[in-house]
């Protein structure tokens, strides 16, 4: 949908929205579902295998999960996420999944349209986020059913029947189609604004006429807003002065026909950061990393192999990293019969290698790479003749303009002529639109936000930023890198907002439910 149905938005009177979600990937989609009046109840026809949790759920089965005490329900649960609500929601949707079982969800969904919270979900492309940019031939790490969103079965939306274990992993193409169609099936389109780029998010002062933004960038609170009502019936000045809390100003532009950029500005009572973590590749910060033959994305590999016409007789491709993206690059290179030099800092027996955590039956291709990492080391094979050579316990010292790279190992230096280099050591979020790029929101405010090393510091049961009331974060930004767990952020945020609005008398009590 267009941002406000008209491209001639009067910028001097921006609208106010209760919730703005930045990011339209699985995180933003799931949150939109919960904000649109869809509420989870215990399904009386099911029994949860955890007797303690099941007893708690039965005691309050007349209430939706969003209105219950999430801390109480999460007590004693264990799982693969550090966020307790993520573990709770996962066990309600996929009971005992970590033990290999495929029990049905213990939730049934009802829709109460009177409890819809108006919101906008802003995304750079169509709903699905970064999934649309991924290669369609690879298989996902998680099973397809673990990446489905509430209320729509993943298998029902994929062609053919998946009978063996390995085929229950999905392709990115299947998942991007699933997420895009999910928004349509659940009738969420009106809340989604595609092709939208946020350039600034700033907090307005509360109760200070003419003082403007906390950061001192503007004095437009009363000067431009002027007490006029917006499309949601809220008066901006009243929001600031009469206990409605601080407001956030969200600015950016929307790409429309012919590549035209239409600027927009709006106010939000709450902002949710759901941007994911794939914006900025982590760099080595070594000499020559900016040379034109050094790349930081798997998607560049196949393009460059074709453009440079690389084959077995070409100089090898250097791949840096020991994660799954690096493994995908190795598989792609080998399938194209291109020689590979694979460099990584860890030893092959390091227990933290991701391959050690993946069952062989589910991930045979990654275990093939791991076996090569162990058996085709530079001490066992010749890099000049073998199609693959690994360099454990090595790092890159520099890249040279003559297409050479310098590697450092244990008390040794090695130089190789290469055709291209691929540095795949992770990605970080890009929160350039926030003050100090959002660094002050991290668990360690002296370091940049990193999904693994320094996630955003949040309240564990509401996902509200510890240092910014009214600002929420979910998904990879808070350490939940798998779709299976990021749904917990949607539950925590929706529960928090519903309870607050109900306390202020802005939400009609539960009633008029329709089963969905």
TrEMBL record:
GO biological process terms held by the UniProt record: negative regulation of cell growth
Example of a GO MF term: growth factor activity
Name this protein carries in UniProt: Oxidative stress induced growth inhibitor family member 2
Species: Tetraodon nigroviridis
Phylogenetic placement of the source organism: Eukaryota, Metazoa, Chordata, Craniata, Vertebrata
């Amino acid at each position: 949908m267009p941002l406000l149905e008209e491209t001639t938005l009067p910028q001097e009177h921006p609208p106010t929205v209760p919730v703005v979600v930045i990011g339209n990937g699985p995180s933003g989609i799931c949150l939109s579902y919960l904000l649109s009046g869809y509420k989870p109840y215990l399904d009386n026809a099911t029994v949860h295998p955890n007797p303690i949790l099941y007893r708690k759920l039965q005691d309050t089965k007349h209430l939706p999960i969003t209105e219950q005490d999430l801390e109480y329900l999460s007590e004693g649960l264990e799982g693969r996420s550090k966020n307790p609500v993520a573990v709770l929601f996962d066990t309600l949707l996929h009971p005992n999944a970590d033990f290999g079982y495929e029990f049905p969800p213990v939730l049934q969904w009802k829709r109460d349209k009177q409890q819809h919270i108006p919101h906008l979900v802003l995304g750079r492309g169509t709903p699905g986020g970064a999934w649309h940019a991924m290669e369609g031939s690879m298989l996902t790490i998680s099973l397809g059913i673990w990446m489905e969103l509430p209320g729509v079965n993943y298998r029902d939306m994929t062609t053919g029947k998946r009978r063996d274990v390995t085929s229950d992993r999905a392709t990115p193409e299947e998942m991007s189609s699933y997420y895009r169609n999910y928004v349509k099936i659940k009738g969420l389109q009106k809340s989604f604004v595609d092709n939208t780029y946020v350039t600034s998010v700033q907090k307005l002062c509360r109760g200070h006429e003419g003082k403007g933004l906390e950061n001192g960038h503007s004095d437009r609170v009363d000067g431009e807003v002027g007490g006029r009502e917006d499309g949601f019936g809220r008066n901006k000045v009243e929001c600031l002065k009469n206990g409605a809390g601080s407001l956030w100003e969200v600015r950016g532009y929307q790409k429309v026909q012919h590549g035209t950029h239409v600027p927009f500005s709006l106010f939000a009572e709450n902002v949710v950061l759901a941007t994911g973590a794939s914006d900025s590749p982590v760099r080595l910060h070594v000499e020559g990393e900016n040379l034109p033959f050094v790349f930081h994305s798997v998607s560049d590999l196949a393009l460059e192999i074709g453009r440079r016409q690389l084959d077995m007789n070409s100089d090898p491709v250097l791949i840096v990293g020991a994660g799954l993206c690096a493994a995908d690059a190795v598989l792609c290179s080998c399938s194209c019969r291109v020689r590979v030099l694979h460099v990584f800092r860890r030893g092959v027996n390091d227990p933290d290698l991701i391959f050690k955590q993946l069952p062989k039956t589910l991930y045979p291709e990654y275990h093939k790479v791991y076996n090569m990492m162990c058996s085709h080391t530079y001490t066992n094979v010749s890099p000049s003749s073998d199609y693959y050579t690994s360099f454990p316990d090595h790092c890159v010292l520099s890249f040279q303009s003559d297409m050479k790279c310098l590697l450092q190992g244990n008390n040794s230096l090695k130089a190789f002529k290469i055709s291209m280099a691929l540095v795949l050591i992770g990605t970080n979020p890009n929160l350039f639109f926030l003050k100090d790029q959002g660094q002050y929101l991290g668990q360690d405010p002296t370091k940049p936000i990193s999904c693994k090393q320094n996630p955003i510091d949040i309240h564990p049961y509401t996902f509200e930023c510890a240092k910014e009331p009214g600002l929420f974060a979910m998904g990879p930004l808070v350490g939940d890198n798998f779709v299976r767990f990021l749904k917990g952020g949607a539950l925590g945020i929706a529960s928090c907002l519903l309870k607050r609005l109900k306390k202020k008398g802005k939400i009609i009590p539960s009633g008029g439910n329709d089963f969905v």
